[in-house]
Amino acid sequence: MFKKKDKMNVVEQEQGNATGLTQKKKKKKIIRRVIAGVIVIAIVAVFVVSGITAKNTGIPVTVTQALPGDIGATIETSGTVKSEIKRTYFSTAATNVHEVNVVAGDIVKANDQLITYDVDELEADSKQILLQGESSVYDYQGKSIDNTKNYNQLATAVTDIQNYQVLMANYKTYIENLEESIDDEIVKKRANLYAQQYSLNKTINTYSHQMNLNTPGGETYNNLLKAQNDANDELARISNELSLLADYKTKDNREDVLKQAKKDYDDLQTAYNEARTKQSSAEAALQNGSTMKAAELASEATQASAENAKRILEEAKEGVKADFDGIVTEVTVVEGGPVTEGAKLLTVESNKDVKVEISASKYDLESLALDQKADVVISGNTYEGKVSKISHVAVPNASGTPMVTVEIHIENPDDKIYLGIEGKVTVYTEEAKSVLLVPIEAVNADTEGDFCYIVEDDIIVRKPVTIGITSDEFVEIVEGLAEGDQVIKTLPTGAEEGSKVTIIPDTEE
User: Fold this and answer.
1) Could you tell me the end-to-end alpha-carbon distance of the chain, in angstroms, rounded to an integer?
2) What distance in Å separates the CA atoms of residue 36 and residue 38, rounded to the nearest whole number?
3) Which of 28, 308, 374, 430 has the largest count of CB atoms under 10 Å?
4) What residues have CB less than 8 Å from 449, skipping those under 6 apart?
């Protein structure tokens, strides 16, 4: 048979070894139990001496009443004071440090100037990069304008070549017809019609050329389009009239017409060749899509470098300022020394958002929960706290016991708090009000569970109980006892369930 207090002592010893909890209260309980045992022995001795011949006298027992009251359970330990907000500053530029205005341990306020840079060299570099960026933009714009011009020239040349090919084909047919039908009057008529056709084609070609130089949808463009359509209609009429001249014969000076037709054909041939030359030149000067895209990306990259240099210069002029109130915990640069971009400069930790980190064993975790209230004592000053975080990873401590880090957020910090020192923590894990309580030593335990011994009609009765919250001195009885029950605090030697007893006063009450 094991008593509850013995089992709980084992647990408390394990917790104490794991968390560093003080043994002071346990020693106090042990001393109290020893004193109580001495008193009981003394009282038993008195009864034995005074009533040795009285056969009906029961075994003397000390009892206490099960009474309602308030109870709370706590975990007491210590931990390290740390900041909840930490900012490490890095250099945004490759330059020299001009001034370092703080050292480790200094208290700073938000927007305090911590570090300044030497920006003269940065200004020169930034100006050069900005000029390169502008030059790159102008270069790309020039290439883009030239390429657009070449595209337009190529499109015009291609259109001209197509039109000249049509005209030359028509003229070739026209000349062949003149040569074959030079004695026929119809040739004259046909020549006249071909001349009109040629003129109309030239006009249409001119309209096409002029339309390429005007904006679609504009007044000039629309007028040219209408004139071109009218010319096409006239051309269709002439073509139709030509188709009706199969049997028509006329007397005319067709030789002159033929001579002019050949001259016009030669002019068309010359214009056609010129258009081909323009096409080749435009194609040779034209930049393909990949080349232009590469030029565009190069321009954008140079502009981005210029913008970045400008940003770096502006940030360097601002230097390094504190983002929040806090304490400088590390400085890794010196005044006048060079720094590279991204180099570590210093670290600031908030002294307004602070916590105490404690280590909890597996036994502590059974009762710890987020938002539980706590008292924190730092350098003799007491602060309000609450459990803000419980890690889900255990790390072995120096003795190999797995421990979990628990953070206690301090609700009312002040300037008396120092980072890195020890803080004593009391976490209020459970509490209950107006519940039935008995002294912790009155609760026993064996393989069947928890139980108490009570006195009913001067007889010891065992009562199985269900316990709740346990503090250093009392245990909450959830089931098994009633208010006012006479509970035996410590069962005397030789007494057992069914023994007759005599109640003696509880000297501790």
Assistant:
1) 27
2) 5
3) 374
4) 464
Looking at every residue in the chain, the average pLDDT score rounds to 82
- The token pair at 83 is 């900041």
Domain count, the chain: 3
Q: How many angstroms from the chain centroid is the CA of residue 425?
A: 33
pLDDT value of position 188: 66
The answer on 199 and 290 residing in a single domain is yes
- For residues 240, 226, 197, 211, the Cα torsion angle rounded to the nearest 10 degrees is -140
> Tens digits of per-residue pLDDT, 330-388?
999 999 889 998 999 999 999 899 999 999 999 899 889 999 999 999 999 999 999 99
Give the tokens for residue 44.
């038993």
Question: Position of tokens 């009762």?
Answer: 367
Per-residue pLDDT tens for 44-75? 444 443 443 344 578 999 999 999 999 988 89
* Residue 99: CATH number of its domain: 2.40.50.100
Taken in order 361, 365, 367, 371, the sign of the CA dihedral is positive
Residue 37 forms part of a structural domain: yes
> Is residue 392 a contact partner of residue 373, using CB atoms and an 8 Å limit?
no
* CB atoms closer than 10 angstroms to residue 201: 20
Amino acid at site 476: E
Q: Determine whether 246 is exposed, middle or buried from the number of CB atoms within 10 Å of its CB (0-12, 13-18, 19+).
A: exposed
Please report where in the chains the tokens 């120096």 appear, as a residue.
398
Q: Are residues 194 and 183 in the same domain?
A: yes
Query: Residue 132 has what DSSP assignment?
Result: H
Instruction: Tell me the pairing of strands 344-350 and 402-410.
Output: unpaired
DSSP string, 57-112: PPEEEEEEE-EEEEEEEEEEEEEEEEES-EEEEE-SSSEEEEEE---TT-EE-TT-
Q: What is the DSSP letter of 57?
A: P
Say if residue 4's pLDDT is above 50: no
Give yes or no for residue 25 having a pLDDT over 50: no
CB-CB contact of 441 with 64 (8 Å): no
Q: Distances from the Cα of 361 to the Cαs of 298, 402, 406, in angstroms? A: 61, 7, 10
DSSP states of 258-290 as a string?
HHHHHHHHHHHHHHHHHHHHHHHHHHHHPPPHH
What pLDDT is stored for residue 258 in this prediction? 77
- CA-to-CA distance for 202 and 32, rounded, in angstroms? 126
Q: What are the angstrom distances between the C-alpha of 220 and each of 172, 281, 367?
A: 34, 29, 90
Residue 61's DSSP bridge partners are 503
Quick one: how far is CA 330 from the chain centroid? 26
Instruction: Kindly give, in sequence order, each residue whose CB lies less than 8 Å from that of residue 35, ignoring residues fewer than 6 positions away.
Output: none
In tens, the pLDDT along 427-436 reads: 998 889 999 9
Does 119 map to a domain? no
Tokens of 388: 């803000």
